[in-house]
Structure formats: structure tokens, C-alpha cells
Amino acid sequence: MEDAASGELEEYEIDQRCSTVRNGNAIPTTNRPPDWNASPRSVPNKISPNMPHIAHRAARFLVRSLPAPGGILTKIAGKIGGRPDEDVVASLKHGGEMLVNLKEYSGLHLYVRGHHQPYILRHFEEFLKPGMTMFDIGAHFGLFTINAGRLVGPAGHVHAFEPGPVQLKYLRANVEKNHFRERVTVNAVALGKAAGQIGYEPGPESNLGSSRVSTLRSATSVPLITLDGYCESKRIERIDAVKMDVEGFELSVLQGFEKTISRMPPLLVAYECDNESCAAHGFSAADVHGFFLDHGYTIEKARGPGTVTRENLHNSRRRHDFIARHS
Q1: How far is it, in rounded angstroms, from Cα 151 to Cα 131?
Q2: What is the pLDDT of residues 285-316, one digit of tens each?
Q3: Residues 6+ apart with CB under 8 A from 12
Q4: Number of neighbouring beta carbons within 10 Å of residue 318
Q5: In degrees, to the nearest 5, what angle opens at C-alpha 118 toward C-alphas 113 and 119?
Q6: Cβ proximity of 243 and 253 under 8 Å
Q7: Of 4, 53, 24, 20, nearest to 232 (Cα)?
Q8: Buried (b) or exposed (e) across 129-157, using 16+ Cβ within 10 A?
Q9: Smallest Cα–Cα separation from 325: which of 311, 307, 310?
Q10: In the 8-state DSSP scheme, what is residue 50?
């Protein structure tokens, strides 16, 4: 296997290596976009979704008609209508559509509310402009990828990274659904501080967002690359914004990104971080925050007041979403 850090790993080689994982036992028979059993590159432009339960449709109508947040109505709809293993098309609040699965936590919210994690999305809505470059690390079904693709336009580019076989199928389908093939690059890899292979442990079907890399022997092996190697191989000279959601593996991703950050720091980085998730990989949330502070960033909580400084570095233990800015 070629080392991605050498700068010679092309996109089609990444996809071919991951096809073994996609075609093996790692893929459940559920949560697959309809009519997509062929090569990952042959994604249909038209999707035949299922009709959601009347409770989901009613909640969707009410939530989008009322100015108040719709989290409670979404939960009620999930209780009444259940969370069936059905693929549906969700229309996004700010434009675009996504194929999602109602059984998956974020999929239900996207169908009913048209958004998920709005307190993070608003920072990208305010920051991203046509022609910019954005990295979506832990892209999942593609919410941030699709939103960023709309904001950066045809002159910009989004690089999405997702190792999960099920998530990748939805991600690729959503890129095609929104006609973003020319402005989005999907990379079927995990990211870390060194290139090679790493274990991947999928989360439950009801919350694939909790999937994570793992050192367990039973975990499925997926390709691992560094962002420094990726940026060198792709000759990337500009990164404006980054979203990172890697369930505790943040510091390893940043360590494999350090040369690039030192040379051309992204101005906006959104990331999730907490001690419990980080501890599984041998470090703490303070280590992640400290990396950003050491590289000239200021850090604030994505929702609600609060900043992270060297004085309170070790006080931020609960799970939070953070915004790091470089000036």
C-alpha cells in the first residue's frame, strides 16, 4: 500500500482500497440508499424515497411554520411515528436536499427541521464566501459538506473525509443530489498523525454519528492518512475553514495537520471535544484546546457564552462544540 504522506496517493486509489471494506462484512444490509448496489461512483441522480409516517410529516409542517426551535416536536414525532429504517429526502433550511434515514438521529432532525446543529452551521453561514476552501472532517451524511458547497460556489471547493462505509454512500449520494461533483471531493479515509491503517468501529444504526476509530482487533480496518500528506499531494494552497467531528481523535488529526496549519492556518475551525472521548485515545480535551492556543487561535463555545484560555484550560470537561479563530 502506498503511503499517503508521500504525496502519490490519488483519489481513485483511496476509493479502490475502501471498496474492499464496502463490499465486505462491514456494511449492514440496512441504511443503504435505494438502487445503489453497484460501484460507489455510479450514484443515481434520482432517488425514490419512502413516504414518512404522518407524525413526521405533521411535525415537519409545524416546525417549519413556527419561529420557535422545533427540537421538542421532533422528539415527539420520533416517539409517535417511531424511527423507521426508511430513506427520505430532507429539504434543508438554507437550500439543497439530502438523502437521510429516519432511523438515524440526525436524519430525523434533518427531515423534520431542515437543519441539525444550527449553532455550528451559523458560523459557517456567516464566514464562508464564494471561492473559499473548506475541509469537512468526519463528514457523516454530508450536512456541512452540502451547506459549504452551496456557500463556496463553483469557484470554491470542499474536501470531505469520512471512513464509515454506510455514511459514505449517503454522502456520495448527497453530493450527486445537489450537483456538487465538481466542487466537492469525497475521501473514503480516516485521518491521523501517521499514514497506514486503523480500526473503525461503527456506531448503532440509530446514531451513526458516534462511529469512531478504534484499536480493537475486531474493528474493521480502514485507510489512514495525514492531512499534511493530503495537502501536499493535492497541492492545496488555501484552507479557509474546517469542521472536525471525530469522536475523541481530534489531537491525532491535528498532529497530522500541524505543518499545514503552521504554514497556512485556517481562519475558522469548528470542533467537538470532551475528556471522556479523548481519554479513549490517551489524551484530554485540554490537550486539544492547547494545540489551538499554541498555534495562535482564540477559542469560544459554539453556543452560549464562554471562552477557553490558558487560565481555564482544564475546566472544560463536558462535551461541547467549540469555535477556534485565527487572526
Answers
A1: 9
A2: 999 999 999 999 999 998 877 788 877 876 65
A3: none
A4: 10
A5: 150
A6: no
A7: 4
A8: eeebbbbbbbbbbbbbbbbbbbbbeeebb
A9: 307
A10: P
In our burial notation (b when 16+ CB lie closer than 10 A, e otherwise), range 52-68 reads: bbebbbbbbeebeeeee
**CA geometry: angle at 325 spanning 180 and 96, to 5°?**
20
CATH superfamily for 117-326 is Vaccinia Virus protein VP39 (3.40.50.150)
Most distant CA pair in the chain: distance in Å? Answer: 54
Tell me 171's DSSP state.
H
Q: Of residues 139 and 82, which shows the higher confidence score?
A: 139
What would the grid cell of residue 178 be? 445537489
d(CA 297, CA 282): 23
The DSSP 8-state label assigned to residue 273 in this structure reads E
Domain ranges in the chain are 31-114, 117-326
Contact 53/82 with Cβ under 8 angstroms?
A: yes
Vertex 108: Cα angle to 275 and 29 (nearest 5): 90
Q: Report residue 286 as a C-alpha cell.
A: 485540554
Answer yes or no: is pLDDT of 319 > 50.
yes
On average, the pLDDT of the chain sits at: 78
The tally of CA atoms less than 13 A away on the side-chain side of residue 82 is 5
DSSP states of 200-255:
EE---TT-GGG-EEE--TTSEEEEEE-HHHHHHHHT-----EEEE--TT-HHHHHH
pLDDT band of 21, cuts 50, 70, 90: very low
Nearest to 245 by CA among 139, 169, 146: 139
Sign of CA dihedral 141, 195, 291, 132: negative
The dihedral of CA 177, 182, 184, 187: what is its sign? positive
Q: At which residue does the C-alpha cell 429539504 appear?
A: 91
- The CA distance from 98 to 161, in Å, is 17
In sequence order, what DSSP letters do the residues of 276-326 get, joined into one string? Answer: HHHHTTT--HHHHHHHHHHTTEEEEESSSS-EE-STTGGG--S-EEEEEEE
